[in-house]
Amino acid sequence: TPARDATGLDGLVLLDLPDHDSAQTGHREQVDRLLGLVDAVIWVVDPEKYADAVLHERYLRPLAGYAEVTFVVLNQIDRLPGDAADQVVDDLRRLLDDDGMALGEHGEPGATVLALSAATGAGVGELRDALARFVADHDAADRRLAADVDAAAARLRPVYTAQGRVTLTAQARRTFDERLAEAVGAAATGRTAEHDWLRHAERACATP
Fold this sequence. Notes:
The chain is mainly alpha-helical. It folds into 2 domains: 25-156, 3-Layer(aba) Sandwich (Rossmann fold); 168-205. It is built from 7 helices and 5 strands; from the N terminus they run αβαβαβααββαα. The strands form 2 sheets. It has a 3-stranded parallel beta sheet, sandwiched between helices. Strands 4-5 form a two-stranded antiparallel sheet. 13% of the residues are buried. The mean pLDDT is 82. One of its GO terms (biological process) is ribosomal small subunit assembly. InterPro entries: GTPase_Era-like (IPR005662), P-loop_NTPase (IPR027417). This is ATP-binding protein. GO terms for molecular function: ATP binding; GTP binding; ribosomal small subunit binding; rRNA binding. Keywords: ATP-binding, Nucleotide-binding.
C-alpha cells in the first residue's frame, strides 16, 4: 500500500506478507521469495511468539547481516501489565543479540526495535516517525545491496580461505587452473604437443 500523507512516508510501499509459520507451504515460499526482493522488513511479533524458534532460526539469525534494514516491532503491549512490556522488549533485544543482529542504539547502525499497541495506538507514532526517518534517508536500497554483497562474500569465504589464510583452497585452485587452461587453449596445445612427441618417438624408435 503506497503511503501518501503529510507524515513523511510519501513513496513508501508496504507489503503485507502472509504468516511465515503458516501450515500452507505456499505462504512460506512467498515470504522467502519476497524477502529477497524488498529493501526493508518490518517483523511484527507479539508477547506470545516473539521468541518463536522458527522466526529466529529460519529468518532473523540468517538475516542478521541485514540489521540496518530491519524493524522488529512488539505488538499487543496493552495485554502486558505493569512493566512487563519493558521486560519483554529487553528479552526480545537479548534474543536478537544472540541471533547476531546488531541493534540500532546510541546512534549506532542496526535493527530498530519498538513496542506498540495497534489496539490502543500507543507507540504507533514512534513507528511512524522511525519509518519517516528511514524513508527520508533515501538509502534503503543501498543498505540492502551492501548487505547482499556481504552475504555473498560470506558464502564464498570457504572457497578462498584455506588453513586460516586468505587464498584459494587446493581444490578451488585446481579447478581454476583447469578452467584457465581451457579458456586460453593450453589444454588443446598440450594435447597437440603430446601427439607430436609420440609421433617423433615412434619414428625414432621404428625398426628399419
